[in-house]
UniProtKB/TrEMBL annotation:
The gene is fecE. Residues 6-241 form the ABC transporter domain. This is Iron(III) dicitrate transport ATP-binding protein fecE. Keywords: ATP-binding, Nucleotide-binding, Translocase, Transport. The keyword Transit peptide does not apply. Part of the ABC transporter complex HmuTUV involved in hemin import. Responsible for energy coupling to the transport system. SMART domains: AAA. It holds the Pfam family ABC_tran. It comes from Rhodospirillum centenum (strain ATCC 51521 / SW). Belongs to the ABC transporter superfamily.
Amino acid sequence: MSAPLLEGRGLRLSYSGRTVLAEAGVTLGHGELVGLIGPNGAGKTTLLKCLAGLLRADAGTVTLDGAALDRVPPRLLARRLAYLAQSTAVHWPLTVERVVALGRLPHLDPWRAPGAADATAIERALAQCGVAHLRERVVTTLSGGERARVLLARALAVEPDLLLADEPVAGLDPYHQLQVMEVLRQGSTQGMGTLVVLHDLTLAARYCDRVVLLSRGGVAADGPPAEVLRPALLEAVYGVRMLTLEAGGAVAYVPWERLGRDPES
Ligand SMILES: Nc1ncnc2c1ncn2[C@@H]1O[C@H](COP(=O)(O)OP(=O)(O)OP(=O)(O)O)[C@@H](O)[C@H]1O
């Protein structure tokens, strides 16, 4: 059997003696769209950073196509893996088009100017994220939701095999939440493996092939959305009773009632 596209196993990480990741593990296959969910502070960003090679765990392994991630040459890794951070802060006053073009940097070398393939990737990413009309705008002047979509476009312009996206729909209006999830879904049909941090369980249920529920730094459940998003499990992990609304074979999850103290505190 071939190795998964990305695999993290037994990842442990502590800050000042406080456990943030406790034997966390996740796999991601080619063409899979996997939702990473869990309460604030559960360790989702930390896990994503470990999987991206941005943070070294105290123990455990991360492999890309079966090879240790830290052995993959940085330039090759930058071509294959795109990481979309939770923060949408941008400090450089570049135009939107230039920001998205930065996604092509791993594919260029000092002796080759950007070519047709680069231009195509940039145009496609601008269009997919609905920001082509903003191309001449300076990115620091954009609204939060506009900026978030520009940063996703930069990640997609890489044309990576693997996208690790930390809350790409945070701060987006309903139209653009659906647009972004559709873009991720489309990426999957073209073979891109995506691990996406989400707080919206309805989006996770509707778009993801699989959902990984993180709680207190460990994986509480990993499986198809219908198996993971069970009322009793959600109550235990989130400390919230969810209303579930079923319509046309889909399930919507509405946070309804807090059941006690914050389960991560
Ligand atoms: N550099 C750090 N030093 C100390 N503690 C940290 C550090 N980075 C993260 N933490 C702690 O680790 C825990 C997990 O943080 P992380 O950002 O991974 O959570 P998360 O699941 O992504 O949360 P959220 O949903 O709020 O984004 C939190 O309790 C956080 O306070």
